[in-house]
Design goal:
The chain is mostly helical and 341 residues long. It is 82% helix and 1% strand. It has 16 helices and two strands. It is elongated, with a radius of gyration of 28 Å. The termini are far apart. 42% of the residues are buried.
Length: 341
């Protein structure tokens, strides 16, 4: 009953104010009604009243009201998960704000456009439309800059860099990944910087710059230790040990992979001690950070007994690699004695 009274009062208010020429109050009444229907998820009626708001704003040449109405329509489409519809109204909001140089409204529009473009880019990437996804991620980057959101700018750089790296364009990915790393450092975001440095290490390694790749992974290890994140430390140790083995630093590989094993064992022990079961990362890595996760290990995955078994295997392989040289010498220099043994 109260809802019916609320609807009636606002409809009456809108009509009375319209006859009096009070368009501001008409706009306010329609906005109240639109917000009410959003709450009960009656999208059709909600759109009707938001569109009435837009009509009033356009008829009266009220630019700010028109921007607000476009913003409301775009946000409603987002609530419905219709991101193509949302994009249309948020871009219209930005166009109007740009035409009148209202910078705060440009920022408001681009905050939402970043979210919309990110969802659309992820969909394109998931459907293997890589070129279109890259273009949409570029739109994300532009929106982040226009909204003065450094965290969003870092994320967009990371998405572009990771996608370029995944399709074999390591050289082109470096600038974006370095930007992501620098922004994460400026913001004090340890997990984000670890992901960026990890992806950088993959890119540099694929370009034959193993020493620079090792430097990036060493930085990951240092950052994770400073942050006190044992899961990140374990992942960094694993990636670092693998790369040490690749470049022939076998003793270092054994040491760091032993540390990886100890960390995994400790994490699982603490998890089981508190009755927690598998241990998951404490941070929320973006879905398309798969390239950096390939080197660092997924920050979203859970540690299980299987991970402990794998850590034990890594140690065995690294120790085997370390002893392989001595074994080869024995084969070459004193094969008879070895066979007698």
């Amino acid at each position: 009953m109260e809802d019916m009274v609320f609807i009636r009062d606002n409809l009456v208010k809108a009509e009375v104010c319209r006859r009096q020429g009070d368009t501001t109050s008409v706009y306010a009444a329609f906005t109240e009604l639109a917000d009410f229907y959003v709450k009960i998820q009656d999208w059709k009626t909600c759109f009707f009243f938001h569109e009435k708001c837009l009509e009033v704003a356009q008829l009266t040449n009220d630019v700010r009201a028109e921007m607000k109405a476009n913003h409301a329509l775009g946000s409603t489409y987002q609530l419905m998960n219709d991101y193509d519809g949302a994009r249309k109204y948020h871009e219209r909001h930005e166009d109007i704000a740009t035409s009148v140089d209202v910078f705060e409204e440009i920022a408001v529009a681009n905050v939402e456009l970043f979210k919309v473009y990110m969802v659309l880019a992820e969909r394109l990437e998931n459907n293997k439309h890589v070129d279109d996804a890259l273009q949409m991620y570029q739109r994300c980057l532009a929106a982040a800059k226009k909204s003065w959101d450094r965290a969003a700018e870092g994320e967009a750089n990371g998405r572009i860099g990771a996608l370029l790296l995944a399709r074999g364009e390591a050289q082109e990915s470096l600038a974006y990944l370095r930007s992501q790393s620098q922004i994460a450092a400026d913001l004090g975001h340890a997990e984000g910087r670890c992901r960026a440095c990890s992806a950088l290490s993959l890119a540099l390694d694929s370009l034959g710059q193993a020493d620079k790749a090792l430097a990036e992974l060493t930085l990951v290890h240092s950052i994770s230790e400073q942050a006190g994140d044992m899961l990140l430390q374990a992942q960094a140790c694993r990636a670092l040990g693998t790369l040490y083995s690749k470049v022939g630093k076998l003793e270092a590989a054994v040491d760091i992979l032993q540390r990886h094993f100890n960390l995994v064992k400790t994490i699982l022990y603490r998890s089981n001690a508190v009755g927690g079961g598998p241990t998951t990362g404490t941070t929320t890595a973006s879905k398309t950070d798969t390239t950096s996760e390939a080197a660092l290990g997924s920050t979203k995955g859970a540690l299980t007994a299987k991970d402990l078994d794998l850590a034990r295997v890594y140690i065995g392989i690294s120790r085997g690699n370390l002893l392989l040289g001595s074994y080869s010498c024995a084969l070459q220099e004193d094969l008879g004695a070895l066979l007698d043994w």
